[in-house]
Amino acid sequence: MRRPILAANWKMHKTAAEAAEFVEEFLPLVADAGSVDIVLAPTFTALDRVANGLRGSNVALAAQNVNPEEQGAFTGEIAPGMLAELGCRYGIVGHSERRAIYSESDDFIASKAAALFAHGICPIVCVGETLEEREANRTLDVVGRQLVASLAGVPEARAAEVVVAYEPVWAIGTGKTATPELAQEVHAAIRSQLGECFGAAGDAIRIQYGGSVKPENVDTLMAQPDIDGALVGGASLAPETFARIVRFERLGGAS
Q1: Catalytic residue from among 104, 129, 167, 187
Q2: Average pLDDT in the chain
Q3: Can 95 be counted among the known catalytic residues?
Q4: pLDDT, tens digit, for every residue of 103-153?
Q5: Active site residue: 24, 95, 132, 196, which one?
Q6: Is 167 among the residues known to form the active site?
């Protein structure tokens, strides 16, 4: 049985003080949620404050991005070793906003995932199609290509540690959500592709769904056999709302 993983991607929201206040309110709400992995991904400027607030809790820290280089003349970038020193256990790579706005390629994303692994940080590798690609019936082709290329740097012996996040671009921040059945169809295809890439380890890899996940739909999404968690954007900004998502109801509940 794959352990569910619920992650909050705050994107460019919350100052360090606001992030610390969130942690103080959030932790008591999920203190007894022992059967899931809970992850917070604040902005870079809030990582240290959030790390201090999470110390000794059941919630892990994640970074929203990373540069694959160890150090150097890369103004404005953050190296994987810096994230490891702060206590990051996860790092998001390949998010559609990075792919679209900053033109990040699959090869560059693969190098980021490999760099995170080299520093003991688990990559959350995002894949997903645009509305145009879905309407052209290219979803599985696009997602499959992104998946294989973006995971090219993952060591086969550690493949089971990686997390994949399927985020249909047309559902991110739009209020639109893939139906549980549509999401499951893509997740099942991803699971099959992971098996081709990594053999038996492919069945152990957790696949999150992302795209307007909220308390009203998380239960039905999480009931699908190949949906192992959620990567949550806007609905993760309020402690009570994200706590409800973490405490989704499935087979008697996750808490």
Answers
A1: 167
A2: 94
A3: yes
A4: 999 999 999 999 999 999 999 999 999 989 998 999 999 999 999 999 998
A5: 95
A6: yes
